[in-house]
Design goal:
The protein is built from 1 helix and 5 strands; from the N terminus they run E-E-E-H-E-E. The longest helix is centred in the middle third of the chain and has 19 residues, at 26-44. Helix content is 25%, strand content 36%.
Length: 77
């Protein structure tokens, strides 16, 4: 099993994951990253200013992948 760390990055900075989670495959870590982004999107939805946010996934030895949520509105106020 590999331990994956799910660091959160937004406009205010980087919030490192100190504990991580163990998965057998990278695909499982990708699902976890997507679920984390969905949770973050739910928490950010009520905010007036929506921020882009990313989950940067790493192991003990390397950066593996990044999943991002980008808010883009074409609404004119």
């Amino acid at each position: 099993m590999t331990r994956y760390y799910f660091d959160i990055r937004d406009d205010t900075g980087l919030y490192p994951d100190e504990e991580g989670l163990e998965f057998v495959t990278q695909s499982e870590a990708e699902v976890e990253a997507a679920q984390t982004l969905a949770d973050l999107a739910r928490n950010l939805a009520p905010m007036d200013e929506r921020r882009d946010v990313a989950v940067e996934v790493r192991t003990d030895t390397e950066c593996v992948f990044q999943a991002a949520l980008v808010f883009n509105s074409s609404r004119v106020i």
